[in-house]
Amino acid sequence: MTETETIAYDVVVLGAGPVGENVADRTRAAGLSTAVVESELVGGECSYWACMPSKALLRPVIAQADARRLPGLAQAVRQPLDTSAVLARRDDYTSHWKDDGQVAWVEGIGADLYRGHGRLTGDRTVTVTGPDGTRTVLTARHAVAVCTGTGAVLPDLPGLADVRPWTSREATSAKAAPGRLLVVGGGVVAVEMAAAWQALGSRVTLLVRGKGLLNRMEPFAGELVADALTEAGADVRTGVSVTAVTRENGTVVATTDAGDRIEADEILFATGRSPRTEDIGLETVGLEPGSWLTVDDTLRVTGNEWLYAVGDVNHRALLTHQGKYQARIAGAAIAARAAGEDVAAEPWGAHAATADHAAVPQVVFTDPEAASVGLSLAEAEQQGHRVRAVDIDLASVAGASLYGDGYRGRARMVVDLERELLLGVTFVGPGVGELIHSATVAVAGQVPISRLWHAVPSYPTISEVWLRLLEAYRDN
Length: 476
Description:
- NAD(+) binds at residues 185-192, 272.
- The chain is of the alpha/beta class.
- The chain folds into 3 domains: 7-43 and 99-151 and 275-355, FAD/NAD(P)-binding domain (3-Layer(bba) Sandwich), CATH 3.50.50.60; 152-271, FAD/NAD(P)-binding domain; 368-475, Enolase-like, domain 1.
- It has helices at 18-29, 44-49, 51-68, 83-93, 100-108, 160-163, 168-173, 188-199, 219-231, 320-338, 355-358, 377-382, 436-444, 449-452, 465-475, and strands at 7-14, 34-38, 112-115, 117-120, 125-129, 135-146, 150-152, 180-184, 203-208, 235-238, 242-248, 251-256, 261-264, 266-269, 273-275, 307-309, 361-364, 369-374, 387-393, 410-416, 421-429.
- The strands form 5 sheets. Strands 1, 2, 3, 4, 5, 6 and 16 form a 7-stranded mixed β-sheet that branches. Strands 17-18-21-20-19 form a 5-stranded antiparallel β-sheet, with helices on both faces.
């Protein structure tokens, strides 16, 4: 093993996923020298095992479902999806798990890329161990940004490793549809992968420990998605936990707390995420290895002047788009501090990730789609707001009929009655993913109800749901 001389930068970024890339982009744009360290593929989880491959799998599923509701088109799409073609397109979306293009992008912004495992080894210092064992010591004049993301959590079941379970990585990169797929979990990964593989030829059984699906959204979101999965042929069981799992002659056998024995070809555990901070040297700077990193709104780690934690590792919002938002905030804050400028860290300031608290949008790409931003009714009430929920059947909106026969959906806005502002909005139904940004603008912008009346939705689109919601609020 050899060790190079120490190389100094203004900023060192640990992790070259979308979050790390955006931190590097913003600090380079401010003229700061920046090093980026990555132990896997440049582009990270989102590009190869999460957002991009999962949506490539799901887009044909949603398109086919939409087409089957349209007279004149339904007959033409009665055949099952061409699974091999869908998987081939998925492979193209992931660049066949090659990161040449993303490497070129990092180099194109003028950042230096170091491949290998990076660990904090003291104040403002990162040591990178390359694939050949060579060590490079990087120092940061202004900031080290931890952008290492999260990994899947597996339950503590005896012999689970011998079963070779799927996590989200295997579920999004599988080369063929298993004949029978058992999915454990009720969150976004679980329902999206259940929807995808059921449509691609698997017989899916979905086991949910809680009372329903998507428990961080309004209850009706999980109910509508569960109904659709059941109608598509999936077996959805709630209030069930797996107590044991084995693989016998190639078949997975899961035992539940109800005493049921379920057989499958593969089992996917989508039961949570943990921070990838267990082996990055946190102990050398007084922090607990494997912990979530607590940050202020400028994304600086609590009690530290130079260490930032951006994206999933701070546990504020485990979403790629929210991590990239944080990265833009963090990059600007790092640059301002490096230049000795004032940092605008007040709520909604240029260096404050306020949206993490108030206006986090999310889309679940099932059929129907589920999309939400801000607080649910229950969350708003728990926080002590005096609120009113306004609900609309989306099928009553003229634009919904354009999506074909049997449209089912629902919309809810949660109104702060003291200020007459929106605290949260939820849409469930075909096509609602493209509605959620308008809701995000209304929530983040704190647009008064009185002003929303003058944002006229185009006819006939499903965005006319805004008019129906406002009318319901006015008239009831």
